[in-house]
Amino acid sequence: MRNLKLRICKEDTTGIQNAKQLLLLPDTEHNDKEITYVVTDSKIIALSGTGGDDGVVKSQVVADLPDIVGAEVLQLDNALCVATGAGEVLLINLDTYETSEGTFCDVGIECMAWSPNQEVVAFVTKTKNVVVMTCNYEVLGELPLDAELATDQQFVNVGWGKKETQFHGTAGKQAAKQSPEFQAPTDVNDLPQDVHISWRGDGAFFAVSYVASNVGRTFNVYDNEGKLQYMAEKWNGMQAALAWRPSGNWIALPQIFPKKSTVSLFEKNGLRHREFDLPFDLQTERIDKLHWSSDSDVLALQTRTAADQRIYLYTIGNYHWYLKQVLVFNLADPLAVCQWSSGREHTLHVLLESGKRYIYSWNWAIDRFNNVICVIDGKRLLLTDLYKAVVPPPMSQRVLELDEYINAIACDETIQCLYTSERNIFFYNDASGRLVKSKPDSKVSEIQLANLLYRANGNKFLATRTLGKKTHLLRLAESENEEYRVVAAQALSGTINALVEGNDGSVYVHTTNNGQIYEIPFTKEGNVQPSCYCQLSQPADYIDCWIPKDENSDNSKTSKSMYCNYLEVFLLTTSYIFIVGLISLRSQQLLQLDSERIDEDVTSFIVAKNYLIYTQLNALHFVDLRNRRKVSTRSIERGAKLVMHAPDARLVLQLPRGNLEVIYPRVLLLEVIGTLLNQIKYNEAMRMIRTHRINPNIICDHNVERFCANLHEFLSQMRDSQYSQWLCLFLSELKNEDYALGMYASNYEASQQSYPSGYSVNRKVEYICGLLCERMEQETGDDFRLPIITGYVKLGKLEEALLLIWKHKQTDAQLADQLLKYLLYLVDVNELYNVALGTYLFGLVLFVAQKSQKDPKEFLPYLNELKALPEDYRKFKIDEHLKRYDRALTHLAACGEQHYDLALDIIKQHNLYRKALHIYRNNADMQQRIHVAYADQLRANAQLEAASIMYERGGQLQQALLSAKHTLDWQRVINLAKRAGDSIEQVASSMVAPLQQQDRHLEAYELCKQFTTWTDVPPLQILIDGHLYGRAIFEASLLRDELATDALGSRIRPSLIAFVDQLKASLGTDQELFVEYKQRLLDIRQRQASADKLDGVANHDVDIDEVDLLSDTSSMHSSRYSGSSRSTGTGKTFRSSKNRRKHERKLLSLKPGNPFEDIALIDALHNQVTKIAHQQQQQLVRDTCKALLQLHSEDERAAGLQQQYESLICLVQESLDCIWIPELMGGASQHLTGPNIDYMALQKEQRYALISEFKLAEIK
Q1: DSSP code, position 108
Q2: pLDDT at residue 1102 above 70?
Q3: What mean pLDDT value characterizes the chain?
Q4: pLDDT value at position 1166?
Q5: Is residue 606 within 8 Å of 642, Cβ to Cβ?
Q6: C-alpha dihedral, 288 to 314 to 467 to 563, nearest 10°
Q7: CA separation for the pair 78, 27 (Å, rounded)
Q8: Whole-angstrom distance, CA of residue 600 vs CA of residue 613
Q9: In the prediction, which pLDDT does 109 show?
């Protein structure tokens, strides 16, 4: 589907006449400074770069030698190898131009050819011998051209198949009667005696075309050691030219048949594989040479006739050979030599006899307009509208045939301009089918136009002509005599390789020498004023521009350019802003968006709507141009390339063998669907959703607020019977998910979503179905019966759906039957039977039961039994059967007092206490029974506080008192004891001990003081036992002086002093343990650091015996014992909780010598720090010191306690940094990954992972 587009035709003058060979050095930097060597019969001339402003190229004579038959540039030796007819092989240094002898053939040399890797050279001598030498001119082999193959190498015909039984196509049955025997020429001396050598691309074989004495023109295949491997199959009509395809599969050679002329393609073994027909007769138009491009894509045929000379460019696709270009040269200045460039793809150097040089540069492009793909094939233009039909090439939807060869196409929306090899232009109107021819004037007829662009406005043409270092931008127009001529020209410095029309008539051009893109607005007078539009960081090798249509603007224009492989300028229009960007694809397959790198190894790309789509070897990628984010990737067949995209989201790809594949990417589909939804075209959007199996949730999730605001329009478009089914599908597919941010997040962003008030994703089905059902119920007519039923099902309102069907049953039984059948598609019939039974309408139950598999002998007796019961009790039995116990209890309550026991059983069985209390709120007796039953249930579930309240409300005060005692709610206990008439003092005394056991000494003291009998002194011992010495001193101070003195001296002071001594001893023990653990930890770390310096990290790998000690959540393991199949410990563990605790105790053992002793010490230190600095400990020390000061005689003891605790706190604070080092806290873990990994840091990190994260967080 692609054509060769002429991007550059550079003209200059060399002044060299009668050239025979071109030697091209690869221009790897593409700076137009390459050196070209031209070989004539007796001279070798060097050309430097391209011509100046006048188009004249500087030249220098390298050597002057007679009878030159071949030359080659040896890049590794920086020398020029020249062979002469006299047999000399000379080497010329390219720096000094000094000549040295390489070898000599005394019988003379007829031709020479070096292998592509320049390791071997092949000669054909004038005595018809093939000589193969190394690059050092050591002979590898020598054979005469007429040498025969060995017997075991010759062809063997086993007689498979008969010619009479084979299909002969258009030749008919007469072809079977023709004699297939080879007829040797009568006199081989009459044939051209030219000898041609062609190497295969890998340098393993070469072929020699020559005239054999017994068979005439043929060729042999030799290996790179000079051994004859194969001889060509005997055929008549073979011509002299020969070219081996660099990829190695075919040897191309012209061949004349009785009724046709072809280029035959032979295999390596000499057998004819296939051929393609030529559009001319080889008898009148002889092929002088064949040239394959370096990438094996293009085959150039250099021909000669009595009137002119031509170059035909062929390429193959889907097993068909297309004629893409024809270059015509007059005999007034005939063609001397042509040569493909090895450094630049599809660049052909042509040198004429007069010395004028043309450098043609093509690139692949796809010509299309209005979804019509135009493929050039000689004089035919193959047209295929891929939007209507996908016709695989080489076939096409229709064919336009001219009487001249087509070289280029320039398309408008309706007009196609065909530029031919004769430099005429044909205008073809696709709508009317009219074809008009326009000839060039005398000046334009001598110019080869490149980058042809047709502008429909004013029937103007734009083209480029490169002369030397300048490129002329030509503006052409058709005159009155149907000739087109140049009406304006603008010279730009550099070489233009891209030309495209933009908005407002502007034209964008790109120059390869500096990477600039110029914007050129054309005035009405035809003058041009170029200005720099943007500057690329590097010049693009091949470019094209693309500007999409701005749908929101009337003056914007549709893209005039074709599909581009290399660079596009895109204009992106959003709601408020315009975004312009530049996409480039360089020869290194690097895709860039402006200066941002997108990806590499890119084979093709295209801009479709708001997305940049590009292919790699076997993947298709989508980039959102609005935020430049890659949103989707999908697999494609290996080597597929993009052809075009259609408005319906169709994307056409061409596979390597040439056939087409059409896909509908989800990203483009969602873009089209989103556009339709924005335009409130719900029916078209729904049609596309159904066709391409997109989830219908996107209709509302695209913009929930807009969808809810346009529900009336949505329903009006879905009113038709066909669309009502789509509405049912939409409702049935609704889910409580936001598909715009989930499944289809590639086309949406969370910030763009807007929701109506009261809407949430978790209630999406309820919200949308509720609105739709409400609107559909308000609509007149019967178009929404099925959607309403679907909405009821999604809302869980099956009863309402059945009642609606039952309503229609009363008026139209047939319609109700259809509605019920539809409902049965959505809901299981057994479930629907239960719902019908829950309506208490036995007619509806029978109506549904008829559609089920139930046996009438089973459900009819049951229904009759229900009919015989009273109404409320019948409803109770139905609800109980359907397990609707709330409703069943309501109906049972209406049946009277005789069913209270049954109701109480149901309440207990199904835990309906709250519902029952509401139902029986006016029945005091039943409420009391329910309260007691509820209290029993609460007490059984250990909810004693609530149970006490329920017992109280049920009148059982003793049970309420007992439950309150268990909760230690002593105030409620005293209250209940008073109401129950129990002894308050006795009840209070029984509560004191439990409160003390729960460390609630102050409450126990208050209870004992208020509700028990005591003499002169209150129960101060309770406060002393709880170490509440401050309160005890206060209570003692309220007594009489003698009692207060006695209490302080005999009870409070001794107890307080003893507690202070105990507290100081405890703090001393904590300090000793802390210091001991800290010192042990520092010693261990010191030993580890010393060992790491001496022996390296390997000595500290965890031993195999230690692995069992690792925590289940640790990812640590020794590198010595790890394998590729071993898990790192993050998977599921089957260790029981008991074994896990045992494992942790073993891991955190403080026993010296434990492999994880440092981890255990850190854990123990954490426990010590937590205990010492705990708020409760601080409060205890503070209250104790305060009590000592209140005694007025223990100030020193209080100061000592305070100083001891303060020193301990300071010790702990000063030790924190040396215990919890940065690696432990995770702040300095900066080890590398990959080959430069820090194994010691990794090991430490793995060891510290065994410490609880909660404990580390406390330290932080």
Answers
A1: -
A2: no
A3: 82
A4: 85
A5: yes
A6: 180
A7: 15
A8: 13
A9: 94
pLDDT category of residue 538 using cuts at 50, 70 and 90: low
Give this prediction's pTM: 0.73
Please state whether beta strands 435-440 and 483-493 pair in parallel, antiparallel, or not at all (unpaired).
Answer: parallel
Q: Long-range contact list for 518-521, CB < 8 A, 24+ apart?
A: 518/492, 520/473, 520/490
Q: Is 788 within 8 Å of 777 (Cβ atoms)?
A: yes
| pLDDT computed for residue 547 by the predictor | 45
Phi-psi domain of 423 (left: phi exceeds 0; alpha: psi -120 through 50; beta: other): left
Contact 71, 63 (CB under 8 A): no
Contact 379, 406 (CB under 8 A): yes
> Three-state SS across 192-207?
CCCCEEEECCCCCEEE
CA–CA dist 642, 668 (Å, integer): 14
Residue 469 Cα distances to 313, 352, 513, 532, angstroms: 27, 20, 9, 18
Task: Give residue-wise pLDDT tens across range 964-977.
Answer: 888 888 888 888 88
CB 586 within 8 A of CB 608: no
Residue 1231: band (very low, low, confident or very high) from pLDDT cuts 50, 70, 90: very low
pLDDT for residue 1132 is more than 60: no
Contacts with 78 (C-beta within 8 Å, 6 or more apart), sequence order: 93, 94, 95
- Rounded CA-CA distance 323/313 in Å is 6
SS3 583: strand
Q: Decide if pLDDT at 231 tops 70.
A: yes
Q: What is the spatial distance between Cα 265 and Cα 259, in angstroms, rounded to a whole number? A: 18
Residue 573's pLDDT is 42
Amino acid identity of residue 302, one-letter, is Q
DSSP 320-379: EEEEEEEEEEETTS-EEEEEE-SSSTTEEEEEETTSEEEEEEEEEEBEEETTEEEEEETT
- What whole-number distance in Å separates Cα of residue 678 and Cα of residue 325? 47
CA distance 325 to 346: 12
Please give the Cα distance from 1144 to 1140 (Å, whole number).
6
Q: What is the pLDDT of residues 156-181, one digit of tens each?
A: 666 665 656 666 666 666 665 565 56
Q: What element of type H or E holds 674?
A: helix 666-678
Distance of CA 415 to the CA centre of its chain: 39
Instruction: Give the model's confidence band at 1129: pLDDT under 50 very low, under 70 low, under 90 confident, else very high.
Output: very low
Q: What is the residue-wise DSSP string for 590-617? A: -EEETTEEEESS--EEEEETTEEEEE-S
Rg, Å, the chain Cα set: 49
Q: Residue 159, CB half-sphere, CA atoms under 13 Å: how many?
A: 0
**pLDDT for residue 1107:** 41
pLDDT tens string 886-930: 999 989 888 888 888 898 999 999 999 999 889 888 888 898 899
Per residue in 812-838, pLDDT (tens digit) is 899 999 999 999 999 999 899 999 999
Closest CA to 144 of 223, 228, 88: 228
Tokens matching residue 220:
């042999």
Q: Which amino acid is at 559?
A: S
CB 123, CB 83: distance < 8 Å: yes
The candidate with the shortest Cα–Cα distance to 1053, out of 1020, 1014, 1017, is 1020
- Quickly count: other Cβ atoms within 10 Å of residue 558's Cβ: 12
Give how far the C-alpha of residue 902 lies from the chain's centroid of Cα atoms, to the nearest Å: 65
Q: Tell me whether strands 68-74 and 367-369 are parallel, antiparallel or unpaired.
A: unpaired
The kind and range of the H/E element at 313 are strand 308-317
For residue 358, the tally of other CB atoms under 10 A from its CB is 19
